Automatic annotation (TrEMBL):
InterPro entries: NPR2-like. This is Uncharacterized protein. One of its GO terms (molecular function) is GTPase activator activity. It comes from the Eukaryota. Pfam families: NPR2. GO terms for cellular component: GATOR1 complex; vacuolar membrane. GO terms for biological process: negative regulation of TORC1 signaling; positive regulation of autophagy. Transmembrane segments: none annotated.
Amino acid sequence: MISDESYTRNALLFCVGFVLRRAADPRPYRPLLKQLALTWQSMEEEAGFLSKPELRSGIQASLDRILISLNSTRWECNFVATPSSTINLKVYRPPKSETVAISDHAVPILLGENLHIELYHWDLAIQWVIQHIDGMRNAIQISKIGEVDLQIVRACLGVLKYHDIIELVDIFMYTNRYEFTERATSLIAGNEPKLLQKAADYVLKDRSNRTAFPVQSVTSNPIRPILPTGIRGGNLSPGTSPLA
């Protein structure tokens, strides 16, 4: 409220607010509302930004720019509202909660390309663990192949999960779906006779008579690779903006 004799009833009342999604955390936006209200109050006292008809059109234009800018990946807006006033707002996210315990059988899946990962200055242990993440090995296998203590591997995976570099999938999850590796494709093409024979031996009841039924080829319907719900491979993607 701005008190002045020039206004009807000697005061000007105005309010501004953000419409957030139901699951969004409102705490980061409370300081922004206070700052925006104080800025508009100052602009009104100096130039009548809120009360003069010729300047009121700038209110909607400012709100549109604020909405678009705060929904961007930078979470900030900086623009000139009037020749003598600027609006500068920045959303500061609250710190994330501590990461959950990493299971020994958790399978890490990289959510971004190596180019994005290299933007971070990881320590040597994390850099070494990242090289052994292929979307199929679990924490125990990474520990054995990389010759790294399992506790260190779990700690590294926890850091990567905290920064949204990886997603962890339980290897025993019933809803998991699997895809062929390059070697499986070579098997179907008939370029892996030994592996093909091993696969046949695995399903044969009477292995002693396997020579009577030599395996020469195998066919299969193509399988579309599918990641668990909520996981996207490829580039790091910003989360859905909380501002509606």
